[in-house]
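Key result, reporting period 2: structure in, sequence out.
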């Protein structure tokens, strides 16, 4: 069985655990101050943030180990459904990772160490996945690998907002220049190319009476070779970043879309403040979400699309009820993407 890593977890990354970036400070207060040097914090201590190239490679390696190695042998099938358009067979799978398993992860003894999350032994992660096979051809109800790459890897978060009906905003907080780091270090990232890393606030509206969820994610994308790509999303705490939009309430002062002006307070364990609007209470809760998307061209030249995720939408809705809806939600994404791709064909040509 492939070992579990310490990065692809549901416990949010903290800003001091991220690689250096001009928009990130690592002072003990968590608030922005002077810009730190590469190896020094605002307290004059050695900067322990991970190297960008090492950080990116470890996350990508961990993602491929999980999807290509652990998923086939440790996930059990829930069901198989047929998705429009094109009558596509979609396998839905599940795996429970116990607190005991999580406590055995070498959290502090890895290439990119991080502190052991509080209460990890009493926690768990419920992972859900789907697998589908697609004809590698541009046509009615079909798409080739280039179109999958464009829809899922290129501008991932913006495209997810476009094709997913309940996503009402994808706000980019910051982005790392991975190519520049590679050039300066004279390094490479193994089999990975076209690597990007950024932080977004993704905003989902939910059916009444559930309140909207805003969740910040670290997004890493890469081509794995000429025949595939991978997209990884990890939860990250961005409360201290001035560039955030929802997490630090800048959205309240913006004109325009009333939905975007709802007042979130992302405490990662506490719900936001209650906001009177339209004669009812509106609350935006933080949401933690980890996912991996993987597309590869198989030996038979069909495309295999794999997605695995674990999440907690927070709020008053019990986690066991949330879990009931996850298989259906990830199943619908197949339809959403394949109906969106043809609409973009003319614009890309």
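The corresponding designed sequence is given below.
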């Amino acid at each position: 069985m492939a070992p579990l890593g310490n990065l692809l977890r549901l416990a949010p990354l903290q800003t001091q655990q991220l690689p250096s970036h001009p928009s990130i400070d690592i002072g003990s207060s968590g608030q922005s101050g002077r810009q730190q040097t590469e190896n020094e914090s605002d307290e004059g201590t050695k900067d322990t943030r991970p190297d960008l190239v090492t950080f990116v490679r470890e996350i990508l390696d961990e993602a491929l180990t999980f999807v290509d190695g652990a998923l086939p042998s440790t996930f059990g099938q829930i069901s198989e459904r047929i998705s429009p358009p094109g009558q596509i067979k979609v396998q839905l799978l599940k795996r429970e990772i116990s607190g005991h398993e999580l406590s055995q992860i070498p959290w502090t003894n890895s290439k990119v160490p991080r502190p052991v999350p509080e209460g990890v032994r009493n926690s768990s992660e419920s992972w859900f996945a789907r697998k589908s096979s697609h004809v590698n051809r541009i046509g009615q109800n079909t798409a080739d690998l280039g179109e999958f790459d464009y829809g899922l890897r290129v501008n991932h978060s913006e495209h997810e907002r476009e094709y997913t009906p309940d996503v009402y905003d994808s706000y980019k907080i910051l982005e790392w220049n991975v190519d520049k780091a590679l050039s300066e270090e004279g390094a490479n990232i193994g089999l990975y190319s076209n690597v990007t890393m950024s932080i977004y606030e993704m905003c989902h509206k939910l059916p009444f009476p559930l309140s909207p969820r805003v969740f910040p994610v670290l997004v890493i994308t890469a081509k794995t070779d000429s025949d595939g790509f991978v997209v990884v999303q990890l939860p990250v705490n961005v409360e201290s970043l001035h560039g955030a939009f929802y997490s630090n309430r800048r959205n309240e002062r913006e004109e325009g879309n009333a939905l975007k002006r709802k007042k979130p307070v992302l405490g990662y364990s506490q719900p936001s403040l209650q906001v009177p609007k339209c004669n009812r209470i509106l609350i935006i809760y933080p949401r933690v979400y980890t996912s991996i998307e993987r597309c590869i061209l198989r030996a038979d030249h069909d495309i295999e699309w794999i997605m695995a995720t674990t999440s907690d939408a927070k709020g008053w809705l019990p986690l066991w009820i949330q879990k009931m809806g996850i298989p259906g939600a990830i199943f619908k994404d197949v339809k959403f993407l394949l109906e969106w791709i043809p609409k973009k064909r003319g614009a890309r040509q």
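The first strand starts at residue 76 and ends at 83. The chain has a mean pLDDT of 84. This case is discussed further under Risks and Mitigation.
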